[in-house]
């Protein structure tokens, strides 16, 4: 009898472990094949400066990724914000662009999105490298947590959608998720081979060092926040790659080349 229950339990566990991912995969594949609703396309066309520049193939790939992300991402409005459908579509479309070239999700799972109406305040105790604890109050536009959580300010996303300041908060925070996929946020996302890793490390280290020196005029066009540390450098490089490809292409062509290969996209061609 005990053997029977053990067998039944094992069978049920195997069914859950094997069948659930297959069902999820099939559901996502079905979603990706559906055309993006016309209203959503209209929101993207009217409100996101970059969207009209996207080549048809990229746009279609983005739609596929967006459908899957929208169905799987939980949004929570914070500080009284009611999250509307245009907010969800316009936010995730920018993250979906990061997957459009590769054709699959590049982060593990679907990060939960906490949306604030504007910049939010983070208070708490922080320890420095010597272990000294201080109370800190910081105003943040966005934040990315290792446990699959992205915190964003809608006011800043709206500003990015208008393309006014060369930033992209959504790409920045999702780049941190990408970076952390190998278990550590250090400015290096998972790469295919040891050779890729070696080349990536050399290119990024050289550019980071050069940026910190601020020697060239084009380097000075890059958000100085990139100088904070290698992980912020990676996230700012991803932002610049998508929204100011001309700047990155001219300041650090090798970094541009690495990101072009990584994302399998060439944004420099879209706006030229
Ligand atoms: Zn950051």
List the helices and strands and how they pair.
Elements: H1 2-33, H2 38-47, H3 56-72, E1 75-77, H4 85-100, E2 112-116, E3 120-127, E4 133-140, E5 142-145, E6 149-153, H5 154-161, H6 169-179, H7 194-213, H8 230-243, H9 245-251, H10 253-263, H11 267-270
Parallel strand pairs: 1-2, 2-6
Antiparallel strand pairs: 3-4, 5-6
Helix pairs in contact: 1-3, 2-4, 3-4, 6-8, 8-9, 9-10
Bound molecules: zinc ion.
Residues 172, 176, 232, 235 line the site of zinc ion.
Structural overview:
- The protein is 55% helix and 12% strand.
- 35% of the residues are buried.
- Helix 1 packs antiparallel against helix 3, helix 6 crosses helix 8 and helix 9 crosses helix 10.
- It has 2 domains: 150 residues, no CATH class; 87 residues, Collagenase (Catalytic Domain) (3-Layer(aba) Sandwich), CATH 3.40.390.10.
- The protein contains 11 helices and 6 strands.
- The chain is an alpha/beta fold and 272 residues long.
- A 4-stranded mixed beta sheet has the order 1-2-6-5.
- The longest helix has 32 residues.
- The structure holds zinc ion.
């Amino acid at each position: 009898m005990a053997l029977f229950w053990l067998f039944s339990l094992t069978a049920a566990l195997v069914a859950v472990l094997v069948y659930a991912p297959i069902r999820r995969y099939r559901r996502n594949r079905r979603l990706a094949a559906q055309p993006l609703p016309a209203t959503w396309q209209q929101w993207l066309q009217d409100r996101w400066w970059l969207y009209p520049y996207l080549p048809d193939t990229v746009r279609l790939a983005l739609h596929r990724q967006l459908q899957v992300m929208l169905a799987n991402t939980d949004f929570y409005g914070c500080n009284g914000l009611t999250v509307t459908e245009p907010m969800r579509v316009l936010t995730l479309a920018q993250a979906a662009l990061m997957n459009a070239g590769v054709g699959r999700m590049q982060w593990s799972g679907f990060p939960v999105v906490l949306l604030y109406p504007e910049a939010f305040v983070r208070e708490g105790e922080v320890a420095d490298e010597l272990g000294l604890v201080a109370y800190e109050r910081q105003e943040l536009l966005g934040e990315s947590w290792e446990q699959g959580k992205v915190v964003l300010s809608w006011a800043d996303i709206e500003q990015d959608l208008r393309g006014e300041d060369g930033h992209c908060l959504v790409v920045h925070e999702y780049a941190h998720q990408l970076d952390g996929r190998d278990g550590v946020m250090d400015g290096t996302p998972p790469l295919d081979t040891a050779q890729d890793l070696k080349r990536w490390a050399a290119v990024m280290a050289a550019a980071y060092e050069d940026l910190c020196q601020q020697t060239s005029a084009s380097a000075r066009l890059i958000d100085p926040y990139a100088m904070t540390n290698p992980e912020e450098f990676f996230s700012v490089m991803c932002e610049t790659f998508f929204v100011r490809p001309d700047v990155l292409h001219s300041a650090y062509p090798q970094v541009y080349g690495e990101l072009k290969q990584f994302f399998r996209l060439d944004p420099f061609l879209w706006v030229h």
